[in-house]
Amino acid sequence: MLESMDLKNVINRENVLVDIEGTTKEEVLKALCNQLFNTGYINDVDDFYADVLAREEEGLTGLGKGIAIPHGKSESVINTTIAIGKTKQPIEWVSLDDKPVEVILLFAVKNSDATTTHIKLLQKVAIMLADDEFLVALQKAENEDELFGMITQRD
Amino acid sequence: MKIVGVAACTSGIAHTYIAKEKLLKAAKDLGHEIHIETQGTIGTEDELAEKDIEEADVVILAVDIAITGTERFDGKKVVKVPTSIVVKAPKQLIQKIESELNK
What we know:
heterodimer; A: Mannitol-specific EII, Chain A; six-stranded mixed beta sheet; disordered N terminus; B: alpha/beta; 4 helices
């Protein structure tokens, strides 16, 4: 239980969005980057966005089952966090199962995190994502609260 | 089988840990003993014990980047794959290794 409370301190409910408009990966990533900027987690949208796209070039981030985990580690990240988005329509994404993506967990990591606490919490999310049933459940989430709850309240 | 391994991805933020978890689960389900070290953005965690390496039948390196400490596996059977293989089909990978070892 203590751990799930901690995750709530790292993931902000305001950075969970459903019904993201857009038809391309770039549009959706930009929307999530903008949200991270609006909530004060990053201080430069263009810089962080460029870093995320650079990571996309290095290897596929689509886990299969409609889930993707793009990530950026950059100077423009103020606080390490994850933005979570669900798109209105499936988005073409390079994935392990070659299928489009509907749920995106964008990892934003500070270049130099003084403590490893936050990254350890992100690891917990990564471990959850190793469970295929959890991936399927995430895709079925209907609103922000449900999505946020599934990730932060999982035992 | 006794398995040891290392997981490490490009940025060391997510795939490393997903790969580790998938390997642990798959090995457990298939009845194998396994220890996986991660080399991520916050350094090495769950560092492999010398004894576990010594006793291991196989070393699985699920790595997308150069890792440190590969000399520890000198003389061992080493299987090197990208993290994506492990994330996609962990059981199949272990089963394949097992059948190769039993040949």
